[in-house]
Amino acid sequence: MNKKIIVLIVGVIIVTVGVVFWNISSNNKSKTADNLDNNIVENENSNETHDENTNDNDKGTLNDKKVAIIYFSATGTTKKIAEYIKNTTNGDLIEIIPKEKYTDKDLNYGNDDSRANKEQNDSKARPEIKNNITTDDYEVIYLGYPIWWGDVPKIILTFLDSHNLDGKIIIPFCTSGSTGISGSLNTLKNYNKDINWIDGERFSATTNQNEISNWVNGLNY
């Protein structure tokens, strides 16, 4: 085989190898570019999802109305429900603190001479509230209390007497062993007819966070 043929064959081999390597290199660059584009799209989608979540969180609660959960709790049961409502609404939690704390003896419903029984039987009873409570900034107020003899404790009426709540949305909630909210709700509606009362709900000591969240999220007003 003469030199010209050998040189020609070697040249063909070199060109062929060069073309193969060029194709491989081009494919790798293309894949790298595709992967980069995919990563960009995924990151953009991730950012869109994050922005959507951020917007949801920025929407506030209860149609952007400023919310307070104001409650009276003598034994802690109503307090627990109030805290669950706060967790759902992100509202401000405010306790109605009696000037004279209620003792177990005061709450002895079997004793007609107990403090709670005397107050509930006295239409003019208005137990003093120890702390200052501001309601001006709130458009929606969850008002919580235990049921005493089928009705609201008289300290709730003290609270209503002490604040101008006309036009505000008030959502009562109560706790009891078995008595419903209807009797106390009638008392509240008749006591101040200028308040925008929303039919509330009665809860037991075993009510959990999920039940409260479902109730709050299902409210219509």
What global shape is seen?
Answer: globular
Largest sheet: 6 strands, parallel
In the CATH hierarchy, the third-tier topology of the largest domain is known as: Rossmann fold
CATH architecture field of the largest domain? 3-Layer(aba) Sandwich
Mean pLDDT: 81
* CATH superfamily placement of the largest domain: Flavodoxin domain
- Tell me the number of strands: 6
The CATH class of the largest domain is Alpha Beta
- The H/E string reads HEHEHEHEHEEH
Helix content: 40-55%
Number of helices: 6
Structural class: alpha/beta
Low-confidence stretches: 19-62
Distance between the termini: 99 Å
Rg value: 35 Å
Percent strand: 5-15%
What does this structure look like?
Strands 1, 2, 3, 4, 5 and 6 form a six-stranded parallel beta sheet that branches. The chain is globular, with a radius of gyration of 35 Å. The protein has two domains: 1-59; 67-217, Rossmann fold. β1 (67-71), α2 and β2 (92-95) form a beta-alpha-beta unit. 25% of the residues are buried. It has helices spanning 3-58, 77-89, 115-120, 154-162, 182-191, 209-217, and strands spanning 67-71, 92-95, 140-146, 169-175, 196-197, 201-203. The protein is built from six helices and six strands. The longest helix is centred in the first third of the chain and has 56 residues, at 3-58. α2 (77-89) packs across α6 (209-217). It has 221 residues and is of the alpha/beta class. Residues 19-62 have low confidence and may be disordered.
